[in-house]
Amino acid sequence: MGNEYRIALAGNPNTGKSTLFNALTGLRQHTGNWAGKTVSMAQGSVPFKDKVFQLVDLPGTYSLFSNSKDEEVARNFIVFEKPDVTLVVLDATSLERNLNLALQVLEMTKNVVICINLIDEAEKQGIKINEKLLMNRLGVPVIKISARNKIGFPLLLDTIDRIITGAIECHPAQMKYSDEIEEQIRKIEPKVREMVGDRISSRWVSLRLLDGDEALLNELNKRFVPEGVR
Amino acid sequence: MDEPKLVKLVNGEKGNIIKITSINLDGVMRRRLLDLGFVAGALVEVVRKSPLGDPIAFRVSQTTIALRKEESAKIEGELVSSGK
């Protein structure tokens, strides 16, 4: 169907990611299984204006460096299944810890919305969050929500809609590394781009290869190298 | 001015606050510790020690995480405050 779009939900464990998922999808959800994976992710649909958003609830992780099966599943979904928009759900009461994952996602994919959840709880604790400043620094929309009390949902859905239609363009902030690492990236990125094209971020793949990420190398082989050449 | 005192996390005493300077671990364990907040420059508080001194619970970026001595012996930092 032409008006269905896939939206992935990523976030640390216990950030209210599933609460958001349930609140948005209501009872319109089922468990989906992805090719070659036994880990299942809940999937549900949210009608909005003339569109249907297919939400996919990824496993909650602190990181996406495939230290574990959960992380690998979440990462492969974001990188290879290419959702139209990836929501990163952060806990407003511990942003420092949560931004680690957000920065990783910004390196991997372009269309990202940062949801700062538990905003009512944070305000109770006297935490003030300047979402405009975060938006400028991160280069993608940042929206304060409370999944539990359904605060901020209209703005969130409208922002997703506007990214899909192209009314909002995301320019995710990219981490700058040391000169030595940047030099190596410059060396291998053109070759990586020859291999993966525009399908996935060549800068991100280069970084992972420099870090010696064999799980990713195997995944690339499986997905991009034709049978018989391997 | 006093030179900052370098200590390994494993030798920290309850209440100590240590600013991490180096993590001498590789591979997946290093990655995992970085993800959990044990990064250079981070402030870590020694929350409590087990009766035999292993494992030790640390407070790092708003969460308590326990490490075995195999790991905490390889993380070093400056003693910022003894907690007294």
Automatic annotation (TrEMBL), chain A:
This is 50S ribosome-binding GTPase. It holds the Pfam family FeoB_Cyto. It comes from Neobacillus rhizophilus. PROSITE patterns: G_FEOB. Gene3D superfamilies: 1.10.287.1770, P-loop containing nucleotide triphosphate hydrolases. The lineage of its organism: Bacteria, Bacillati, Bacillota, Bacilli, Bacillales. PANTHER family: FE(2+) TRANSPORTER FEOB, FERROUS IRON TRANSPORT PROTEIN B. GO terms for cellular component: plasma membrane. GO terms for molecular function: ferrous iron transmembrane transporter activity; GTP binding. Residues 4-166 form the FeoB-type G domain.
TrEMBL record, chain B:
GO terms for molecular function: transition metal ion binding. The keyword Zinc-finger does not apply. Pfam families: FeoA. Residues 7-79 form the Ferrous iron transporter FeoA-like domain. Keywords: Iron. It comes from the Bacteria. This is FeoA domain-containing protein.
